[in-house]
Amino acid sequence: MFAELEVPGTTDLKELQRRLYGKYETSDDRVRLMRATLLLASAAREEDRGELATLCAVLQLLLRGRLELDEECVSQLLAFVVSFETPDPKSVPVAGVVDAVERCAGSNGLSAAWKESLATIKDRLSANDLKPTQSLRSLARRISELCDDSILSRLKPDDGWASLMVSEITMMAPERQRAWDPLLRHAATVHPEPPARSWDLERGEVDERAVIDDTYWQRYAELMLDRSCATAWAEQMRAHIAGIGEQEYRTRLLAWFEAVPNSKPGYLSRDSLNREILRGLLWSSVDFADPAFARAIGAACAFLFKKNSPLGVTGVRLLARIRAENTLNQLTVLAGRVKAASQKSLIQAARQRVAARSGLPIGDLDEIAIPSSGLTELGRRVETLSGFSAELVIVGDGVELRWQKPNGEPQKATPAKVKREHKSKVNELKGAMKEIKTTLSMVARRIEESPLARRRWSYADWRQRYFDHPVAGTVARRLFWVFSGSGMRAVGAADGDRIVSLTGAPVAITDDTVVTLWHPIDADPNEIVAWRRWLFDRETTQPFKQAHREVYLLTDAERETGTYSNRFAAHVLGQSQFRALAKSRGWQTGYLGPWDSGDHGIARLELPDWNMRAEFWLEGAGEEIAQAGGFLYVATDQLRFYQPRDAREPMPLTDVPTLVLSEVMRDVDLFVGVASVGNNPEWQDGGPGGCYRDYWHSYSLGVLSETARTRKAVLEHIVPRLKIADRCTFEGRFLVVRGDLRTYRIHLGSGHTFMEPNDQYLCIVPGRGAATQRQSEVFLPFEGDRTLSIILSKAFMLAEDVKITDSTIVNQIGKSR
User: Fold this and answer.
1) Taking a C-beta distance cutoff of 8 angstroms, is the pair 401, 390 a contact?
2) Residue 538: in which H helix or E strand, if any?
3) How far apart are CA 536 and CA 717, in angstroms?
4) Which helix (H) or strand (E) holds 398?
5) Which helix (H) or strand (E) holds 315?
6) Which of 13, 394, 470, 547 could form a disulfide with 379 if both were Cys (CB 3.0 to 4.6 A apart)?
7) pLDDT above 70 covers what percent of the chain?
8) Tens digits of residue pLDDT in 266-279
9) According to the model, what pLDDT value does residue 49 have?
């Protein structure tokens, strides 16, 4: 018997699984093995042979693989389980057989014979002497749901969108419920048509552990986008929708899509009726050229990709086809939220298809498609609902929803009357708030990257797409721009609807004026100082560092090394924090672990507009291993540049364009400044085992980086204007704050605090202390420097150290109680 199956005569499941899956590699092989095992198990059952336990274990392992079985095989499995008077699920594959019945039954329900077999199994599970565990009760409930003729009863009820759908349909009149049942059954039968060309990965499930080049992922993306629902299936779905009423169907479907991010990930990541019905409902919306649907599908995709559900791929296919005005925007936002190479390639291919339909370059279409979210004037939208005024207003890089009573007085929250009478409008306003916040971040990122992308606009296009856009304009008007043409060049900024120079004179515009983003690398020091003063005089906070942007130039040491820079070498970074930050800046980086040859890795930044790439070298640091198996910490090494992009040998640093060198080094400085373990205020002892003690102290007291020097320049301008100015001075790398109990030195790079006279370290975890509220009222000329905010918070708190009540800080200072 075992010689025929070539499996070990043992119930060791790990060894059994290794042998089985090594011998029987394909699904067809395993189905044939299951049929043979069933025949042998039936014989063993009748003859009461000792091999039955092993054969049952084989069946359990095969059923875990969720094989595609036909009705005959499922019937044989049911008959095998029914043959046991007391089918103990621990030894008999009851749960796996129930899974197989669910998959094979699909949306058509069960035959009378299958229902009878399942009822017998359920009765025997309840009647035998087995302890009534939670798993047994769950199994019995699943069998009861399978035997119910209603498709709604077979859905997992505690599943976000499905719970909402079930509750809405069950509240309908019986005849209306009966109209929905065939639609949902039909939705569960959707299967994407295969692309014209074959693909070697089943169901788009990609193993990305292998090293695969960009061409592979490009081919993958193209083939996946070619897949669509079958035409016959779509026609039948349209008929079902017509029977319900298209308007009612659209309204309910949109609400269910919006509830997808509240779903149970497990129900959507593995085979289940919930997942198959949602797949069909998604495809049913392909004809709905509605921005609300595109927005809901985009949000659902972000959730589905995060939870590793294949339905994320379905959502991207839909966004590539739906002809709503905001589909490109939704794909662009989604591209910034995913990490896997397959997902990024798929989304980029979908973006290109949307752009191809319009006949415009994708960069232009990105800008044209920036959503206004209903704003009718710069940074503002007003609605009147039941006599109340709702105002959406952009404030800095955020958005607020403000309410006013009919008499003009402020209303703190959404009025109850408005919630009752305008529920859909209130939801739409809340959705617009989320969209605006995402758009602001996306626009700021796109503009910030424009110098490296060599982006330039005609004045008319720039004015329409950015300066006068109701959302993008709130970003563009806080920045400085270069206007050139007809032999002239001028730098200008917004003054209301005008564009003026530093002197306040209007910038001359001609028909051939071209607009680019101003960058300090092209300006002399006096001009940079003047524009910084402009920001302070008008208290304008820029969406990112522009006037205060760090500029990195080659050092003598780098000219000496020739093809690499060690400026940011020998730092220790938290790997997860570094990878998240690097990916947010467009760098590609793998996950370093003990499996890597030489513990070595490289973070890459592609610079296609310069036909270059940059590499930042890393290696594993220490012996600490994360839960996922990789290194907790990585050590930094060389920074190199390559031209052309596929070159194997690095180029001389002296040949790297100054803008490229500066921007890439700024990124790397940011990685070190944020992810370094030296920033951890609780690591004075050097972290695990004290192995980073020397590094922590050298970082805490070290020479200021370019970022830290910029921070110092800003503080030197801000501090004299503060209430605590008479208690603050600057000494080299430190802001010195005189309290009533002690004098404190705050390092302008790390933000760490030391107390005089002996430089005793003062551990303050960011966020503690009453000074945080007062710091938030201080004007800062740019967004995004958290360490700058922390230093100001500490300064406010320590200047009034007698008022500190936090015991962990008080005990360190030595204040008498």
Assistant:
1) yes
2) helix 525-538
3) 9
4) strand 398-404
5) helix 311-321
6) 394
7) 86
8) 777 666 788 888 99
9) 58
Neighbours of 666 (CB within 10 A): 17
The torsion angle over the Cα atoms of residues 540, 545, 549 and 552, rounded to 10 degrees, is: 180
Distance separating alpha carbons of residues 794 and 731, to the nearest angstrom: 17
- The tokens describing 543, both together, are 């969406």
Domain ranges of the chain: 2-154, 160-180+192-368, 380-445, 458-538, 556-675, 698-813
Sign (positive/negative) of CA torsion 710, 714, 715, 720?
Answer: positive
Cα distance between residue 739 and residue 755, in whole Å: 10
Instruction: Find out whether 188 and 106 touch, Cβ atoms under 8 Å.
Output: yes
pLDDT of residue 18: 61
CA 374 to chain centre: 25
- Identity (one letter) of the amino acid at 308? N
* pLDDT score, position 3: 45
Return all residues near 585 (Cβ < 8 A) that are at least 6 apart. Answer: 605, 667, 670
CATH architecture of 556-675: 2-Layer Sandwich (3.30)
Order of strands, sheet of 398-404, starting from the edge strand that comes earlier in the sequence = 380-385, 388-395, 398-404, 410-411
pTM of the model: 0.69
Among residues 437, 447, 482, 267, the alpha carbon closest in space to that of 363 is found at 447
Do 552 and 662 meet the contact criterion of CB atoms below 8 Å apart? yes
Rounded Cα–Cα distance for residues 444 and 449 (Å): 9
The answer to whether 764 and 801 are in contact (CB under 8 A) is no
For residue 279, list its beta bridge partners: none
Residues in the chain: 817
635 in Cβ contact with 570 (< 8 Å) = yes
Q: Give CA torsion, residues 689, 693, 696, 701, to 10 deg.
A: 160
- Cα of 395 vs its chain's centroid, Å: 24
Task: Report pLDDT for 770.
Answer: 38
Q: How far is CA 757 from CA 741, 743, 760, in A?
A: 12, 8, 8
Which regions of the chain are under pLDDT 70?
Answer: 1-23, 25, 45-50, 106-109, 126-132, 134, 145, 148-149, 157, 193-218, 269-271, 596-600, 627-628, 684-690, 767-777, 815-817
Give the tokens for residue 31. 């189905």
| Cβ–Cβ under 8 Å, residues 609 and 454 | yes
Burial 699-723 (b: 16+ CB within 10 A, else e): bbbeebbbbbebbbebbeebbeebe
Instruction: Provide the pLDDT for residue 638.
Output: 94
Residue 269 near residue 309, CB atoms below 8 Å: yes
At 195, list the tokens: 């692309």
| Per-residue pLDDT, 667 | 94
The pLDDT, as a whole number, for residue 8 is 45
Take residue 299 and report the two structure tokens written for it: 């949000």
The order of strands in the sheet holding 631-642 is 572-574, 631-642, 612-625, 600-607, 588-589
Contact of 598 with 616, CB cutoff 8 Å:
no
CB 208 within 8 A of CB 340: yes
